[in-house]
Amino acid sequence: MLKRLLIALVVLLVVAAGVFWWLSRPDHARVSEQAVAGRVPQLTEPRTQDIPTVGIAKPVGWAAGEKPTPAAGLQVAAFADKLEHPRWLYRLPNGDVLVAESNSPPREGGGITGWVMNFLLGQAGAGVPSPNRITLLRDTNGDGVADQRSAFLTGLNSPHGMALVGEWLYVANTDALVRFPYREGQTQITAQPEKIYALAGGGNHWARNVVAAPDGKSLFVSIGSSSNIAENGLEAEGAIYAGGSPAQGTRGGRAMIIQVFPDTRTARVYAWGLRNPNGMAFEPNSGALWTVVNERDMLGSDMPPDFLTRVDLGAFYGWPWNYWGGYVDKRVTPERPDLREYTRRPDFALGPHTAPLGLTFATDAKLGPNWSNGAFIGLHGSWNRQPPSGYKVVFVPFTAEGFPGRDAKPIDVLTGFLAPDGKTARGRPVGVITDATGALLVADDAGNKVWRVSAAK
Description:
By secondary structure, this protein is mainly beta. Helices cover about 10% and strands about 35% of the residues. The chain has a 5-stranded antiparallel beta sheet, with no helix packed on it. A 5-stranded antiparallel beta sheet has the order 3-27-26-25-24, with no helix packed on it. The termini are far apart.
């Protein structure tokens, strides 16, 4: 009996060693991050993986005196520190800044998949409980540092996006769009939330964003997929993916942006086939809605590119069957060749696995002429690429017509989050907004700070 137990133990150790060897055997990039960026990125052959490359830069925080590196002509300082996993930012009309301190809700399921997911989250600094709080930051003397803070809203459910419409503050929890009455200048809301629209939860991609339409009559809510490529079944992603109509796809729908009408508490699918749209903003010249999207995994370190794109009503962007406007992902079954000709090609590639989350246009920015027309994007950084990609804030120049320039490439605005050896991260940028003075604020969920980038004096 003892001999059999020893044999079983040896077998388990050998299997564990094999799994560890496989995970530590990276699929190295063959082209640069910058090559897989722009309006016409350099796309290579996909390299299908049964187990993804794991290359997480372990968060270590910022040592005393350390800070990110700004682009020439800019300077950076901490606007606020000692926060708990700050993810998203929103500026109120009086200049107060709201910070969603949030993280993934408890994940259901166990087994090997659950264990691996929890391990990866822990390694990436995302394994901590969600604070479920929105904190108000106020700079009373205008010196660029928040000197007052208060717990503005508590008891939320993995909150992320925020939008003020009239006297209502809307908050995108992971499972519902809710709202609260708001009065200018208040530092705390104690009213109970009013549910406006239920949102699908569970699985991957918990963060929900919300932006208000320019006319204030509707709101756009982004909802990521529950999986990588619908490997848990198309039904798990909503009726629209299982052959239903767009109208059926709103309730329980994933991998889409929906338009919510709060007066009637109804919604429609605005655009779909977006694996994980997060940041959304309206481009000032055209008035069009844009979003940044995290694309699929396990096709190698170079493929496919994450992207920035204009979002139009009824548009389909390919997920899970296609990527980058029509390249077929042969792993997805059943196939949908009928959808390929309708797949919209994204407008601008942001590099492979860079994890774009934050998005804001330079409408109110006062950082100088080099940063006056375009989009600021927070690249949270890869967990599955060698060498790592992202881990910085970039700027994509736009033309007067409301699109990125033909030869445009992402320009570094704020770097230094990733250590030179690529093995540790001092922080990871997420949400980006401009403050009342025109400076750029950056939420750093691994460094637990909000950075403020301004024009150098």
